# Entry
Amino acid sequence: MSSWIDLPAGTGFGLANLPLGVFSPDRPGDAYMCSEQRGRRTGVAIGDHVIDLAGLTGDQVHATGSLNAFLARGPEAWAELRRRLTGWLVDPAHRAAVEPHLRPRDAVTMHLPVEVGDYVDFYSSQHHAENLGRMFRPGQPALTPNWKHLPIGYHGRSGTVRVSGTPVRRPLGQQKDAAFGPSRRLDIEAEVGFVVGVPSALGEPVPVAGFAEHVFGVCLVNDWSARDIQAWEYVPLGPFLGKSFLTSVSPWVVPLAALEHARIAPPPRDTPVLPYLGDEGERWGLDLTLEVRLNGELLSSPPAGLLYWTAAQQLAHMTVNGASLRTGDLFASGTVSGPDRDQRGSLIELSWNGAEPIKLADGSTRTFLEDGDVVTITASAPGPDGERISFGEVTGRVEPAS
Amino acid sequence: MSSWIDLPAGTGFGLANLPLGVFSPDRPGDAYMCSEQRGRRTGVAIGDHVIDLAGLTGDQVHATGSLNAFLARGPEAWAELRRRLTGWLVDPAHRAAVEPHLRPRDAVTMHLPVEVGDYVDFYSSQHHAENLGRMFRPGQPALTPNWKHLPIGYHGRSGTVRVSGTPVRRPLGQQKDAAFGPSRRLDIEAEVGFVVGVPSALGEPVPVAGFAEHVFGVCLVNDWSARDIQAWEYVPLGPFLGKSFLTSVSPWVVPLAALEHARIAPPPRDTPVLPYLGDEGERWGLDLTLEVRLNGELLSSPPAGLLYWTAAQQLAHMTVNGASLRTGDLFASGTVSGPDRDQRGSLIELSWNGAEPIKLADGSTRTFLEDGDVVTITASAPGPDGERISFGEVTGRVEPAS
# Structure
């Protein structure tokens, strides 16, 4: 298939992707725009452009300022929109109707794509969990006894999930022995996030096989972490202020429908799982390689395909106790790390808790983030016919503590 | 002051209380009601009645189905409504105007009062924390080293916060060594909850002195807990499925303005606190005694006035890292327990982890909850002139696992 739109060579936003996001036009002076058109609306990324779905379809669900109302319509509506978009973009007969609703991607402002319900962060990379275990519990088994039986997770702060580009204010907080001040161990966590579209009822678990009936798509997540604040606070009830100051997400949500070619079997599991976590025939490993850059320099390439627990298993676990889902719920993989040093998705792993500073191209070193540092996470996955599916980026610049 | 409304002797819903909630009329057959009137609207409890604020004031903010939009207006609007309500209820000249908007409290259905943003649960009762420490870490200090330096807390699942009366379906889940089945250690946690009205900006901590500028009022919380699920999952990231199946709240939110006579100094602190947690002159201890009943029988009377950390300190801590607040955020004290056995706010404490079964009046015993059990938590606080301020109740009946 090809499109009448000019698609730059190697664009990750081709006909096989069609991710959804929320944008507002950056040209308030444009004479033809009424005030409503200046508001936040749903867009589709195609090549270097954004399609204004509210304008093109006339469906006000795309002018609500978040994807929630559309995502709540469910998989048939998602598939129908995808079919229509493909038709509009392939058949030149639609060009005249579509073109007025195209905007250059570099001339719009992207917003948080969903109004987030609950935000859950998992801990599903075996290499990440083992690295942290070795650092903090030397001489003991690297994994806790529960790790291979269930996808460990916890609730994060949904109110501080923000879109890529939001400044990262270095947090203040209590540290070891009640010292107080700006975090000196500010870190990243490179993760993959999953966006729930269809809610579920209280008391009704969602099985592994129900994953694609509830989850619309995938984004990138940077779960900024203040390791010194977290270390002091987290026993016995888990991370709190060490995480809650900011979680950044990429603006484009890639539909599961775009990831059929990226599905792979997760790594072999050496410990049998309970039936509710069984995923034979429902394998949602994703061949998705992240790239983490610090001030433009590639630090690591964490492989999400190596995650021990898949998102479908995470969803089944999260609801097995009867917990309900809401449209806009976001759950993330936890830091993605692979077995090699250049596959680690956090600075605490890359610098081995500060003991092995990271050497940068300019001769400087890093253990944790310094003010002014910019961290950008990108990713792509295989699509059909050699096409790549881009996830765009999630980025943030560290600002000094206030 | 007295009202032209008949206020039953000893009502906790007198002129000094005026709590807000969301109700829907239970009489859809009433000929005079249009469909809009049958919807969820904001009410004020007064004696045995509810005032329909949407009908009385004509302000559509009270017909939105949650308190959020009104609470977002802030303390001046809250105070103004309170002044107007007092005037209407005291001066008989208003009787004819108000009476058409009164409904018997026992003839309406109460709903979740707010659309919950983030839900945070603290751990602020020293007696509760020490009891759990003695049970689970015998031979070690009962409190973790951080406990007297900060109010320990964690994020819970806001999507499963439901109104009093919601059935408590016994959760299924993984337990020790990956056993799977219905929880056999289903418990309660009797808590006090605080409802945020006015949001705050990312990066701007709310000081202890800002408490009443952001928090509208107080409700009762039962944070149902599956101890066996929790015990297996919670290392290292804290409670997750052991809590997320349901959290129940009382339907009436008592304004802070009704609690001036209930304010007391919190217990003396033997460990100095950091300046951001200092509460000299901003003491928000609340002389609020909870009562926990199992199938009607009084089990305990947990004293919220003995909480080591106040809600104002909890709020300051929760935001010191720059985390923002949203309207509808709910944060709770954690289980309230006092030094005496009959002041313990959970069954795990009352039965000492099952070792000392609770003897009930009918001759039966309990360690944890059985199917069919009904748990009801009530509370009241001192008001002016000997009046009591009631918090109503939060109740739930345990249903068998599905």
